[in-house]
Amino acid sequence: MRTVKRIMQILMPSRGAGVAHKPRHLFGKVMTPDYLRRREMVKNFWLVAGIAMMALPLLHWIVAVSLFTTFVSLMYLDEAPVLAEEWYDRH
């Protein structure tokens, strides 16, 4: 897992090292740190699902894994409050 994070740090541009920032949603609202952690976990779900799909490249397997991963991703992200301007005001 540490290797994957290192590779992602190399490939993905940084948002400003050491700078505290408030990530913005598409609609301009602030996302909570809990939601950002959940998004990171969903990315890991999809990486594992992609490896599983490449390991067994059968159409019915790829469709089943894709649908299941989509369901799990949406379900997991729906648990966290996305938009929380007041959260930053309190913390």
Detailed description of the structure:
This protein is mainly α and 91 residues long. It has one domain. The protein has four helices and no strands. The chain has helices at 2-11, 33-55, 59-78, 85-90.
**Number of discrete domains:** 1
| Total of DSSP H or I helical runs spanning 4+ residues | 4
Which sequence of SSEs, written as H and E, runs from N to C? HHHH
Give the overall shape, derived from the CA principal axes.
flat
Overall strand count = 0
Decide which structural class fits the backbone: mainly alpha
Output the radius of gyration.
Answer: 16 Å
Helix content: 55-70%
Indicate the proportion of strand residues: under 5%
The parts where pLDDT drops under 50 for at least 5 residues are: none
Distance between the termini: 30 Å
Mean pLDDT: 75
Largest sheet: none
Please give the structural blueprint.
Blueprint: H1 2-11, H2 33-55, H3 59-78, H4 85-90
Summarize the structure.
This protein has 91 residues and is an all-alpha fold.
Task: Jot down its keywords.
mainly alpha; 4 helices
